[in-house]
Amino acid sequence: MKALAPKSIAPPFAKYSHGVETELRRVVLTSGQLGVDRKGVIPEGAEAQADICFGNIDAILAEAGLDRHAVLRINAFVTDRSHMAGYMAARDRYLEGLEVLPASTLVIVSGFTRPEFVVEIEVMAAER
């Protein structure tokens, strides 16, 4: 994978790449993951929920024989600007140690299927 960072545009605002280039052999797309653990517990706060989302994503990638190093793109959704910091803290931990940061989008939405959910995350990953 190669990060794309044109000098002609402003640098990323946070821990992500403007673009990512790779040759695809196999692609894995996850559904949006919500912050609910295996026992059905939904913790309060975006950071705790995002940690669960990223844990679920790791499990999905592992099922495909991949890990977070294969993530090309993260799409995340939060229900309010106040949840951005918690989500970003969890995302930055998730990305720690990666040589190439994935492309990333964060969108504020009006809500999810249940009001206690405040974050949802999906990824696109590819075998190199």
Automatic annotation (TrEMBL):
Swiss-Prot/TrEMBL keywords: Hydrolase
Catalytic class of the enzyme: hydrolase
One MF annotation (Gene Ontology) recorded for this entry: hydrolase activity
Keyword Hydrolase: yes
Documented EC number(s): 3.5.4.-
InterPro entries, alphabetized: RutC-like_sf, YjgF/YER057c/UK114
UniProt cross-references to Pfam families, sorted A to Z: Ribonuc_L-PSP
Descriptive protein name: Enamine/imine deaminase
Name of the coding gene: ridA_1
